[in-house]
Amino acid sequence: MRQLPANHQSLLQSIALIDCNSFYASCERIFNPKLLGKPIVVLSNNDGCIITRSAEAKALGIKMGEPYFKAKKIIEKNNVKVFSSNYSLYGDISQRVMEILLGFSPEVEIYSIDEAFLNFKGFKNHELLTYCKHIRQTIKQWVGIPVSIGVGSTKTLSKIANHLAKKEADYEGICILKGDEKIEEALNRIEIGDVWGIGRRLSKFLRNYGVCTAKQFAFLDRRWIRKNMGVVGEKIQLELCGVSCLDLELLPSPKKSCCVSRSFSRPIEKIEELQESIANYGSRVAEKIREEGLIAQSMSIFVLTNHFNKKEKQYSSSIKLQLDYPTSDSKLIVKRAVEGIQRIYKESYRYKKAGIILYELHSSSSVRGLLDYDKPRTDSLMRSLDEINYRYGSATLRLAAEGIRRSWHMRREKVSPCYTTSFDQLMIVKS
DNA sequence: TCTGGGGTCCTAGGACCC
DNA sequence: TCTGGGGTCCTAGGACCC
Predict the structure, then answer these.
(1) Fewer CB within 10 Å, N or C, chain A?
(2) φ, ψ dihedrals at A286, nearest 5°
(3) Catalytic residue selected from A28, A56, A115, A287
(4) Which nucleotides of chain C are near protein (any atom < 7 Å from a CB)?
(5) Residue-wise pLDDT tens digits, A350-407
(6) A48: which strand partners?
């Protein structure tokens, strides 16, 4: 057998990827056990697309990212349970899972809402399986979420292992990918598009060159990869060959940008309504950076028409705007955003989406707002605003520019209760 | 009728300078 | 009229991730 292009010298290097199965669907099931074994889907904002499917829903042929209205027929015919996404619930459950994982390794990278990398450096291979079984069982028992675990000597290999643990029933949710032969055989079963970092475009490009599996990619000439795919491709190949290029990021790196954008529940034509919506998003994004103790120096806003609607004329525009000084003051950010809309708005288009992105974020304590004469007053005003909205619900207290009726506001027709984060929505046990 | 949102990183190309 | 070359920096846009 040919050797993989690089040796797996680091036998003791073990990284585990723990990934919650159909996370949002599993969250809904915790509080509604009747849903166990039943097909479930969870919808994106605005009840637009299907973003999570339980295993049963996948088996029915419902595709990831499919628009809800297109899948409605299958859904109704098979009595699939449908939920609008409920991020405060999922965020809370995620925290509970992550807290458990922090107890299983001193080095944990929380990679996304439903995934974490754990460093198992120094573990002997035969210990790994027992340990992973224990993790899986603990999370199931304490939180009620099923997880899959993949272990490999690099992040990319642990992703591959996780993929196999999920896809192939024999693994029973845990795949330890160790030993050159075993790795090579596994890479042979992985389609190129399922490799972490190879998306739609690259996978099409590679297939055109006859590279269809992860194994073929691992054996490609590295100079060719460098030339055609840049450093990104090169790193992926090295990682597949057991050479670690991606370190665990134990501390979350500071945010560089912060965005709030939404599609409207119906097309908007009037500038007043666009301004009202951008004022809302401005307010939310300012609130978000205040929560993290950040201030922004610049921002951009954007508007889009509905590009799916081929019959309508299309327009999209964005504009970059400077703030007078770094700030997290909702009033200033909203004011600038509303002015910005005036500059990019064009009449007689039907707008579908708008958004605001804040840039050049810094810690609010690290920068003295020399130009911000009003800083103490503003800070205390914003603090009160945040406290009231935290206690009485988001946007209870808001700027006049944000409007009252907000008829363009997003749809969320099938949302479950916030079982764990809202007192008035706690589960009631009747006896 | 109805098609998500929030991030990061990399690269190509233009502007500018000497 | 002819009009270099190399370096840096910035930005927009693309690709990817979940």
Answers:
(1) C
(2) -65, -40
(3) A115
(4) 11-18
(5) 999 999 999 999 998 876 655 667 788 888 999 998 898 888 888 888 888 888 878 7
(6) none
